[in-house]
Automatic annotation (TrEMBL):
Residues 547-635 form the ABM domain. This is Chlorite dismutase. The gene is ywfI. InterPro entries: ABM_dom, ChdC/CLD, Dimeric_a/b-barrel. Residues 272-291 have a biased composition (Basic and acidic residues). The keyword rRNA-binding does not apply. Residues 292-304 have a biased composition (Acidic residues). One of its GO terms (molecular function) is metal ion binding.
């Protein structure tokens, strides 16, 4: 790889004859277009950049299979009339490299993988990246420190690998916004590595690098060279560059469909036929590159193939498997699995959720390499294994439905990953740019689910179906209520019945009898029996205002007292909120660690304002540490 930065002799350009300038522009465009429009996928990739600031005016970047190819391109440019008006300001020569930090990466490097395996093809594809369609470019060289106190090369391999893994966690937060390409230059240039970052918004690069400065792999073990930044432009705009006019990007006016941009191969076998499309997200980002073993994501975005690596674009899954059902409220399903909007992912994403009987730790080890490879694509948000509520979940989020669809082929190849759910996570989504549509989700229940799911609360559909509640409040003594509930449980025997229990309010003489049902019709059918319990004074949902009965919590025994104390604090805050009428904490008479919170508000929007508040978010976040299961909101039948 060659980064070639040129300064332009503006005085000489202004003094040159028009015919000379016309010839320089014509042959300059011809050269730049020829190197950036390589038809043979094995031949490489190039780009031209208008530089900003004092470190040059023009940067030409080449990636080719051999140094001989780079050498020929350098000399070809020097023979153009345009070159006589430029002077090389600086350059950087380097090579893409695969990582040896991950176990699977080492297997590839050591030749222990089947050459035809999907992982081997993935690793080769990462050795031959393509330049992504992103407008801005930032390049900088870097070294790993060899100071007496902080010597990277004296660290044990395992410790370096841990640093790289933590470093990569930061970079993955910028997936889709910043794409990196890391190249090694030991023995080839004055610095050990070169980092090329691509972004549509340069402030994303700034934010990323600032955040990474606090990571030990940077703060203790990294030295950085000068930063060069610029904006990519279409070679046909060379005359505009020299005239000081506005430049267009190479893809700005390009014909053709870019809908496949960022799409991963559909199956490992497809990787044999080609490579991923432009741009994988910024994995370990910035300088996740370590020493010669680099980090787990070598160089770059996707693949600029090389002879023997295959060629062409990957095939994609033609349609969704029937085993992956589309659901309207996948955000709630993600919350069930332990992923929460604003914390684990941001904004809209197309989600895949699989529930499996496999051990979570074993599955996580198997998914690690696959997720790392997914990180090569700008459309990948996250892929993770979570254990929640005694279940194991595999989740994968993508920026587009097409990308999620092709990724599903990889995921369902894993043992035990058979059936799943899919859909748009986040706020209800209308028609998408690629013609796919998300859930309508405009009714009141769906809107409540969306608000609560953002906070990590089951908003219905905890196991694929809604759960409906019947609740009556009674002033009868607890012994009478217990007897009545025992009789109800016997009569409610059936698949649709979830549970029926007495919940006592220690601060009130009125207790609640709660009956939960998986089917709304069955719940309504049982409502008459529930109203027959002694001492009923009212049903939940009756009266004025908006009731949010149904916030169920199962607390770890050691934290029960802390939970009750915290509820008291939250209750004091609720009393000061506009529209709040009353809130009570009720405890299951059979299990003191099973509680629910019943609230009443002037109207629905007042309640929603609380669900969206920082206080509620902080309480839920704290609750994740002390609850035995995810909190759940059920709907009154």
């Amino acid at each position: 790889m060659l980064h070639d930065v040129r300064t332009i002799d503006w005085a000489g350009w202004a003094e040159a004859a028009q015919r000379t300038r016309d010839r320089a522009i014509e042959e300059g465009i011809e050269f730049l277009q020829s190197v950036t429009a390589v038809e043979d996928a094995d031949a490489g990739d190039s780009m031209v950049v208008s530089m900003l600031g004092h470190k040059g005016d023009l940067m030409i970047v080449h990636m080719r299979p051999t140094l001989a190819d780079i050498d020929e391109l350098e000399r070809r440019f020097e023979r153009t009339p345009l070159a006589s008006f430029t002077e090389r300001d600086r350059s950087f020569v380097s090579v893409t490299e695969a990582s040896g930090y991950s176990e699977r990466g080492r297997e590839f490097i050591e030749g222990d993988l089947d050459d035809d395996s999907g992982l081997a093809r993935y690793m080769r594809s990462r050795l031959y990246p393509e330049i992504p369609e992103k407008e801005h470019v930032c390049f900088y060289p870097m070294d790993k420190r060899r100071d007496p106190e902080y010597n990277w090369y004296d660290l044990p391999f395992e410790e370096r690998a841990e640093h790289m893994d933590a470093h990569g966690d930061i970079g993955r937060e910028y997936a889709g916004r910043v794409t990196q390409m890391i190249t090694g230059a030991i023995g080839m240039d004055d610095w050990e590595w070169g980092v090329t970052l691509y972004a549509d918004d340069m402030t994303d690069v700034k934010d990323l690098l600032y955040e990474m400065r606090f990571d030990p792999s940077s703060s203790k073990f990294a030295e950085f060279g000068p930063f060069w930044i610029g904006r990519r432009f279409d070679p046909a705009d060379l005359d505009a560059l020299l005239a000081g006019e506005l430049l267009s990007t190479p893809w700005e006016d390009a014909a053709g469909d870019h809908s496949g941009h960022g799409r991963p191969p559909a199956t490992p076998e497809d990787a044999a036929e080609g490579h991923g499309e432009n741009g994988h997200p910024h994995e370990d980002s910035e300088h996740s590159h370590g020493d010669d073993e680099s980090d787990d994501h070598p160089d770059g975005d996707e693949t600029d193939e090389h002879p023997s690596t295959g060629g062409g674009r990957p095939a994609t899954t033609d349609s969704w498997s029937e085993a992956i059902a589309e659901i309207d409220d996948v955000t709630a399903r993600l919350a069930t699995a332990g992923l929460h909007e604003g914390e684990d992912y941001t904004g809209e994403a197309y989600a895949l959720v699989f529930e499996t009987d496999r051990d979570a730790a074993d599955l996580a080890d198997e998914v690690e390499g696959l997720a790392s490879n997914f990180d090569h694509y700008d459309t990948h948000v996250t892929t993770a294994v979570r254990a929640s509520g005694g279940h194991t979940y595999l989740v994968s989020l993508w920026a587009t439905e097409d990308a999620a669809q092709t990724a599903s082929g990889f995921l369902t190849d894993l043992d035990g990953i058979d059936t799943g759910a899919r859909g748009w996570a986040g706020e209800p989504r209308g028609e998408t740019g690629d013609g796919a549509s998300g859930p309508a989700g405009t009714d009141e229940d769906t809107d409540i689910r969306s608000q609560l799911a953002n906070q990590g609360i089951y908003a219905g559909q905890p196991h694929g179906e809604d759960v409906y509640a019947l609740v009556v409040y009674s002033e009868a003594d607890l012994d009478r209520l217990r007897s009545a509930v025992e009789d109800l449980r016997a009569s409610f025997d059936g698949d649709d019945h979830v549970k029926t229990a007495v919940y006592d309010d220690p601060d009130d003489e009125v207790a609640a009898v709660v009956s939960l049902w998986a089917d709304e019709a069955a719940a309504q059918h049982a409502s008459g029996d529930l109203e027959s319990v002694p001492g009923v004074v009212r049903k939940a949902g009756e009266g004025e205002g908006f009731g949010t009965m149904g916030m169920f919590y199962t607390v770890k025994p050691d934290y029960r007292e802390a939970f009750v104390e915290t509820f008291g604090t939250v209750g004091e805050q609720l009393a000061t909120m506009d529209g709040h009428r009353e809130t009570a904490l009720l405890v299951n008479d059979d299990d003191e660690n099973d509680m629910f919170i019943a609230s009443r508000w002037d109207d629905r929007e007042d309640a929603m304002a609380f669900f969206r508040s920082d206080d509620f978010r902080e309480t839920v976040q704290w609750g994740r540490e002390i609850l035995a299961d995810t909190p759940r909101h059920v709907f009154l039948a």
